[in-house]
Amino acid sequence: MGRPGYVTVPILTVLAAIGYVYYTTVFLAIPAWLGLTTAAGGANAAAFTALAAACVATYAVAVSRDPGRVPASFVPDVEDAESPIHEIKRKGSDLRYCQKCSHYKPPRAHHCRVCKRCVLRMDHHCIWINNCVGHENYKIFLVFILYAVIACFYSMVLIIGGAMHLPKDEQPGSDSPRTSIVSSPGRMFQLPANQTPTEILV
Ligand SMILES: [Zn+2]
Ligand SMILES: [Zn+2]
């Protein structure tokens, strides 16, 4: 009984996406806008690196931490079945029993078909961490989501800033086709001075 493993396509996709965003932000956007050697550029690169490291660390914990097992010693509190907060009461007199695991389930525990076992306070099975989100890892999962959202907005600001400063930095001394198109799209359609449109057509 256990999970299929840590090396899955969704997990590799998440790691590749983090790496791609990190590379684009720190090695393309920040150098284009602020420069990596300036105080502002270095501070932003350090802050974004710390944020990316926090993302990877919390993601690794969310992937690897056990979401919560039903203790083998768990026995339903039948004495307390009168209590209105008890799920046993709400479901009538049926005790919640997992046929596959052959044990009773506490309230809010559910059997996961992927993990092939019951998980405490199971929220859902997330393919992106190849793990259930349950009692033991939902907090770190939420912290990872929070870090990822902050990093996305931070990266977006830096990439937009870098893109806005790109043409200005490329203009002096360089006359690459890309710069020409960016700076004056009309030049793409300019004719050579010594030719008329009919000469070109002929
Ligand atoms: Zn089960
Ligand atoms: Zn699961």
TrEMBL record:
EC number: 2.3.1.225
Chief site of localization: membrane
Pfam families: DHHC
Transmembrane segments: 12-34, 40-62, 140-164
Domain Palmitoyltransferase DHHC: start-end pairs: 94-169
Amino-acid biosynthesis keyword on record: no
Compartments where found: Membrane
Keyword 4Fe-4S: no
GO terms under cellular component: membrane
Membrane topology: Multi-pass membrane protein
Compositional bias per record (Polar residues), positions renumbered to this chain: 173-183
Keywords, comma-separated and alphabetical: Acyltransferase, Membrane, Transferase, Transmembrane, Transmembrane helix
Chain spans, region Disordered: 169-188
Catalyzed reaction equations: L-cysteinyl-[protein] + hexadecanoyl-CoA = S-hexadecanoyl-L-cysteinyl-[protein] + CoA
GO MF term list: protein-cysteine S-palmitoyltransferase activity
Family of the protein in this entry: Belongs to the DHHC palmitoyltransferase family.
Domain comment quoted from the record: The DHHC domain is required for palmitoyltransferase activity.
The name this protein goes by in its record: S-acyltransferase
Organism: Panicum virgatum
